[in-house]
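S., here's the first fold you wanted:
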Amino acid sequence: MKQTGWILLLIAFLANACAPNNVENEKNWEKYFAEYKVEGCFMLFNNSQGTFKVYNLERSQQRFLPASTFKIFNALVGLETGVIRDTSFVIPWDGVTRDMPEWNRDLSMQQAFRVSAVPYFQEVARRITKPVMQHWLDTVKFGNMKISKIDTFWLDNSLQISPDEELGFVKKLYFDQLPFHKVTMQNVRQVMLMEKKPEYELSYKTGMGFSGPKTIGWITGWIEENGHPSFFVLNIETENKSLDMRTVRMNILRNILADAGYFKGMK
């Protein structure tokens, strides 16, 4: 890419994401992707220091289907509109047996979020309705804001969002800067908390979807140590159908965060 192109890309990156004081290209993080023969990018914003570390800045500007990371947005709208009364709100199992055994039962919103139950949040989207969902997509300016079918648009490549847009989104969620009531955002942050240790708290949502022959994997969220959040987004892709995406994306996330000095309670 020509130098002027990189300058424009960097300006757009800073405007759309978190406007840090310093951006560092972490080329050495490439080894964590090469280990599994996947393409991808990783972005890490330390809020207290105001620094960005980024691997593959160019990819961070490209849009992809959000897959199940959209459950963050879906949960926000569901709670805000009253479609979901609270995080304990149960939607009964529809009786259809699916490949994920943990989906084949009645689930609360918190349970469905934790096991990433697609049918639960498809029903939430149907109850929200397409016009209301479109209103919130437009209000938040979430990705390209496109809806096809109300219960598949985040899975069928209609709705797309870039990694830096995802990072800006979760940062706004953490700081109550989205156009939802604070209790709504607090409830979603609560269900995003996946690990709570004396040294750190790790909050995130995973995602996996398909774009042609490619499998797209995501993890987006934040790690908090000593009350200091750092926001991250991982985006990877592969054409290897035998790759264990769930294991690989988590290994890459943990390896990079450990490389950056996290999990020790020292940040």
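And the second, which I think is the more interesting of the pair:
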Amino acid sequence: MIRDQGITSKIWRFAIWALAILFVLNLLAVIAAVVVNSFATRWLGTWLPAGWTTRWYFSAWKEFQLSSVVLVTFEIVFTVVIVSGILGVTTAYALARRDFPGKRLVVLLFLLPLLIPPLTYGIPLATVLYQLGLGGTFWGVVLINIVPSLPFVVLVMIPFIEQIDPRIEAAARVFGAGTTSLFLRILLPLLLPGMLAALLLVLVRTIAMFELTFLIAGPTTQTLVVSLYYAVFASGVRAGQSIDAMAVVYMVTTLFWLVLALQFVNPTQIVARAKHQSSH
């Protein structure tokens, strides 16, 4: 009986590893195909392209006006990051330091945008923004992206704030520290790793946020991911290599910020902190 269980366990481990390896290989193959095709002069029915060129990147940059798209993308993303950071850190501090009736309900309401599909609240929210005259505008895109970004900052920052002993703040106030001085000299150095982690992850999330941005963006407020969608599905004949070149630009941009974010935060550590706090 024990031997049969051991064999079954080995089979399960082998199957799980085989599926994981197959998934990774399939993902790498898709990415490799896109990257290779973006440098190909012609690639039909062969293992490798007939030749190599970088002209598709120059063509995509000009055809899809990537300079303005990238600029708009980072203007929107950094605005979302700044606003979400200010509001999110303040809200997280209040929730971490104050106990009041209905606190759990308030936290749940904050986390709802992370728990439900974006289109569930995105469509009615976009309708309201259009009625307010913000449809297709810069601030319309910013506001709709703040809705899931703000709860994300709150979720990440609460465990970091709860790790700071309140007695440190009390001691600083006893010695005459005001609110501004307390934040800049005491709290900010302690919270900086968590803030960097939260804001960098918000940045990556906003760059990749398609559904909400697509609902509200106009011709001059499209982010890179929305422009990529239009490049693929809009009417007209476009070279596949140019579209793949645009996709590579998007992948590299997102990957750069994701790798940078992971230098400051380990997602498993955030989950472990959250579990530790919930167990108390």
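Why I say that: The chain has two domains: 5-51, 56-275. Residues 95 and 106 are 9 Å apart (CA to CA).

Talk tomorrow,
H.
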